[in-house]
Fold:
Amino acid sequence: MIAMLYSMAAVVTLCGYIPQIINIWKTKTDCRDISMSTWSIWQATSLVTLLYSHYEVADLKLCLTAGINLTCITVVIAITTYKRTRYAYINTAPSDNSALNPLHMFREYQVDYESVYQSAVKSLPAGYH
Structure:
């Protein structure tokens, strides 16, 4: 009975990760509510479990379960990293599509020459303009 339940652990584990992976993939945010440190710890412990199951106990069922865990956790981390990088760029880029200009980061230094000219003219003495 226990052996049969243990055999189903890989399938149950996979079914548990699928909704999380789908939600992260579909979200339109930068996934800041996902704790990367927690997922990284789970990834490290899954790797240790996979190595232990393969080299120490040579248990195929445990290897499969740990391998599925490690794969799904790595997918969650990869999607989260992608979303954070992608949305960080989108949130810092200007909304007027000038992000295509490699110099868009200097947009706050653009000079309105007409206002500079008007200020200069106003500052001249009366007979000079």
Remarks:
- The radius of gyration is 28 Å.
